[in-house]
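Intended use. Records like the one below are meant for learning the mapping from a protein sequence to its folded structure. Do not use them to infer anything beyond what is encoded.
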Amino acid sequence: MGAPSGAEQDPVILGDRPLTVEEVSAVAREGAAVEISASAQQRIQHARTVVEDHAGSERAIYGVSTGFGALAHTLIDAESRDALQLALVRSHAAGTGTEVEAEVVRAMMLLRLQTFTTGRTGVRLSTAQRYAALLNHGFTPVVYEYGSLGCSGDLAPLAHCALAVIGEGQVRSAEGRLLGADEAFTQLQMEPRYALAAKEGLALINGTDGMLGMLALSLVDLAGLVRTAEVATAMSIEALLGTDRVFAEEVQAVRAHHGQSISAANLRALLADSEIVASHRGEDCSIVQDAYSLRCAPQVAGAVRDTLAHAQRVAEVELAAAVDNPVVLDDGRIESNGNFHGAPVGYVLDFLAIATADLASIGERRTDRMLDPARSHGLPAFLGDDPGLDSGFMIAQYTQASMVSELKRLAAPASVDSIPSSAMQEDHVSMGWAAGRKLRRGVDALTRVVAIEVLIAARALDLRRPLCSAPATSAVIGAVRDVIPAVGEDRYLSPEIEAAVALVRSGTVVSAAESAAGKLG
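Structure written out for the chain above:
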């Protein structure tokens, strides 16, 4: 399905400043409209003038008067240079596999358009406007999962987008209907077929926009998920009769990682005024130290936060960049370069996959502890209504474990791999697209692992009554119970897990906690 209408939102203005990851998400997911600023239009037109001046000359300029890749030494006569661009787009639209999600394609289209607005690529204004038209009317090019090596950019995915822009290939409407790109432009009352001019084909496909789009969307998702994981942690700490003393500010200050400090502060706020925690805070408590999955929670979630902050800085540099080869410079030169290499983005995508796997792993360990009567401090086996007859949440933990195992495999870095291509001209590639694809699968799995912990911890806290959980965690239990009834005898669990996933994905869990605890860091 395409993005929903964003008519109620202010348009995102392109070209006056770099995009934010939140703006990428708004356009990609919520259908926010885009507009090309007046200053950006001037830059686009100026760069086009520079390209046209060079295109009519006999100078050897990569992709303008020469072939591509290993064919860069082949000169193209002036009469064939426009046809060269069409041939490039058609030949590079060689992806295969399943269709890429609409939000990723929309992010990719947006980021390529943003690069056009820098005035470094030399495309015509009318070409940029065709990208904006597809975005604003919910027509999403069909792009396939396999094809990008992440060097010379995301060539195949971007070529499929470019193919749609010229009126070839297929798109999906906002309702998900498949139609020819030419039909979409006819509906938009624009030329159904569009001829590319010198350098344009290369400018449409030579960028890191696919991997960057996936990074931007993942940063938005993970910023919410790390808070949700902290809410789930607080619920599990209460359920397992854990202590909050280890999260004290003076204790955390001894090892003052920024993310750890924020995470510990969130746990203090979430556990404030908990009758359950207070019930075993005295000197008579026989539990000297909690298990690592409870005691070390801010160290792990904090490290995830710091990893996100590093990835955010990389994303901000990329969102302000003009990735193209060759690039139009201020002095009128058109210079070849290697800025299309995806290493900076690929590395942080892989780093985030590691953090995602570990955040899920520690959550699954807390879940397993709540279900084990030998370690849960008085909770019934698997939180069943009648253990033995009822299996309770036994298999929900299996489901968590299967995803955590998958996350560990997905944490293996893609960016350390490289396979030479184009007759050894492109002999070192980033695999950043692959890093982005596996991170997206990891983010989905983490969402589900966290949702299952919330679901199970809510049941465990029900069983701790008459002691009341903290106001923040009680609010989360209320939000869960609005859509998922309290557990009784065994019943079909998958729909309830999916309902919990929806609560996490929508931000409802965090919002409920913040209604009592205040804004979380």
